What does this fold into?
Amino acid sequence: MKIFLDTASLKEIREAAALGVVDGITTNPTLLSKESGEPEDILVQICETVNGPISAEVVATDAEGMMREGRHWAGVHRNIVVKCPCTTEGLKATKALSSEGIRINMTLVFSATQALLAAKAGASICSPFVGRIDDIASPGMEVVRDIVQIYRNYSFPCEVLAASLRHPMHVVEAAKLGAHIGTMPYSVFTALVKHPLTDIGLKKFLEDWEKAKKEMGAKAAR
It folds into this structure.
């Protein structure tokens, strides 16, 4: 599964990218509004930091406006993927933009039926929001499972991006279900590598090594 970070923080992105396991970035207007600087400048710097799909979201609600913004974002950098919402207008824009060769990440997907339409409209990526579905007492991972199965049934080239992943087990479940991509906040990403037994084991190895060095030093001094 590809790992994306859901952030517009260049500090977080640079720190995560240094590990060599980040495949892309998802941003949205809310995340960009939290950072200092022009959104376009921030997106360009992100694209220069991570050589993978970088999602930039349109804010227009009509198809014509989405198409205009989408063409703009696609021209800013070759890595940018345009995010369109899963609405009737968003589907119109996705069909038009994808026919021009512009990659679309259809966002705000909450059902398998929406995902089916996204793929048929030509989206390259479909983003079901797992955590937000859980919030309304419905199992978000079941939606991911259904979408993965539907896409496999009909060989849709659209990738399933499990979004709104809020803890490591969400990441594990998405990977087990076959989601192509999982996007998560930096805090969830850093939690993936943590395990108390790793810390305990490392501490023991270092203590044993220091003990061995002292013993070797004592033997050499004799």
The CA atoms of residues 105 and 125 lie 4 Å apart. The chain has two domains: 2-191, 198-222. The chain is about 55% helix and 15% strand. The two ends are 56 Å apart (CA to CA).
